[in-house]
Amino acid sequence: MAWLLAWAADVVAGGSASEDDDGEDSVLAALTHEQQRHVEELDAKASSLSRSIKDLRLRIPPPDISLRLPDLHAHSLASNAALARQLTLPRRSRYGSVEGLIGGS
Predict the structure, then answer these.
(1) Which residues contact 2 (CB under 8 A, 6 or more apart)?
(2) What DSSP state is assigned to residue 62?
(3) Which domain of life, per UniProt (predicted)?
(4) CA 44 – CA 46 distance, rounded (Å)
């Protein structure tokens, strides 16, 4: 951001473009206190935005996850079916034994 301000000040002043670090300091000295504060706020926001982008990039799943999704889905369905069988098995056997007693009488 500071280099953009340095370039703009150089163009307005009609000076020669230099690659020194002194150009940034001279531009900041030419700005009013309010403008300097605004530049600092923008730099802080840019830094915060950069950190947010890095954090979001870390949350993106790896590219090969799409290759594993069908297997994960099939495994999930099989696990759910097995769990449902386990949960209903005692109920079936209990009802079956009661029906056997009632039917046998």
Answers:
(1) 24, 27, 28, 39, 43
(2) P
(3) Eukaryota
(4) 5
